[in-house]
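Figure S7 source data.
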Amino acid sequence: MRIGSLELADGLLLAPLDGFGDAPFRLLCRSMGAVLSYVPIVPDDAILARRRARRPLITYYVGERPLGIQLLTRDPDRVVKAIARVLPLQPAVIDLNMGCPARKVVQGGRGAGLLREPELAAEVMAAAVGCSPVPVTAKIRLGWDDVTRNHVEVARLLEQAGAAAICVHGRTRSQAYQGRADWAAICEVRKAVSIPVIANGDIYDVASADAIVDSTGCAAAMAARGAIGNPWLFQRRDLFAVPLAERLGVLAKHLHMSVLHYGERRGVVSFRKHVVQYIKGLPGAAAVRTQLMHAQTAAALLTTLAEQMAPDDRARSALLGQDVTEIKQWMGELCA
Ligand SMILES: Cc1cc2nc3c(=O)[nH]c(=O)nc-3n(C[C@H](O)[C@H](O)[C@H](O)COP(=O)(O)O)c2cc1C
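C-alpha cells for the predicted flavin mononucleotide complex:
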C-alpha cells in the first residue's frame, strides 16, 4: 500500500491506542511485523503548550519507523503550528483523529465531534496538507450515531481536501467500542474514494484480519484491541498456536522494555494492563491477576508468574532468563 509518498509492505497496521500504544509496545509490534504504528492521540494544545516541559510529550525508538503521529485538533491554524512542532521528530505520516468518542473530547467538537461538522473537518485536513511535507491521513468513524451516519460524505470531503489515506473504524460515536464493527460500511467508503482506505474494527485473529480485507476490498487493515497481549497477530499467528514458553518469553521481554523505557516503578505499573491480556485464557490466569496488580517490581511480577503459571523449566526460564542488557541494546536509539 502507498500512503502518499510512503510505500508500506503488505501487512497489518497497529492502531493508535491511547494508554497501550506507547513506545515499548509499538517497538515490539513493529519487530513482529506491524507495518506502521502511531503515537496515539496528541491534543494540539498539549503540543503547543509543551515548550518547557520536564518530560518530552512524544518519544519513540528509531526502530519503530515508519511511525505516524496522531493529532487531535479542530482548528486549521493550530494544526499548522502543531505539525511544525512535531516535524523535527520525522514522522512518516501525520494522522488527524476524527473518531475519539470520549465525552471531554467531543464536547469541544474534537475527535468524533468533528464528524458533525464535515466542512470544518475538511478545512482542518486542507490546512494540514498545505503545510505538511509528509502525507496526512485521517481516522474516522461511521458518523455520530446510527441516524446521522455520514462516513461516505466525510471521506469524500477529506479526499478532496488532500488526505493521503483514510482509516475507517466501522462504528459510530454513540457505539463507542460496543457492538460489531460494520465492515459493509467501510466498503462503502472504499468504493467512494480513490485514496487508500484502511479497514479497522474487530480484528482479533488471522482469520478476521484476512476477512476484513476480503470483504471490504480495502488496501490494508489496522488491528487495535486484538493486538493487546497478542503481538503475534502481526506475524500472522493465532495465539492458541503460540507455545506457552514463547508467550511468556515475549511477555517478559515486553515488561523489561517497559522498565527500561520508564524506570522500574512506572514501567511495572504501565505494564500491568498488558500482563492481564498476555495471560488471558491461560490456566490459573484469574487466580494470579490480583497479585500481579500489586507487583511493584519486574522481579516480583515475573516470580509470581513463574511460581503460578509456568508448568516446566522452559516456561520458567522464558520468564526469568531474559537478558536485559541484550534487550536494552536491541531497543536502540530513542527519539524525543
Ligand atoms: C484503549 C484504547 C485506546 C484507543 N486510543 C485511540 C487513539 O488514541 N486514537 C484513535 O484514533 N483511536 C483509538 N482507539 C480506537 C482504536 O484505534 C480502534 O479504532 C478501535 O479500538 C476499533 O478497533 P477494534 O475493534 O479492533 O478494537 C483506542 C481504542 C482503545 C480500546
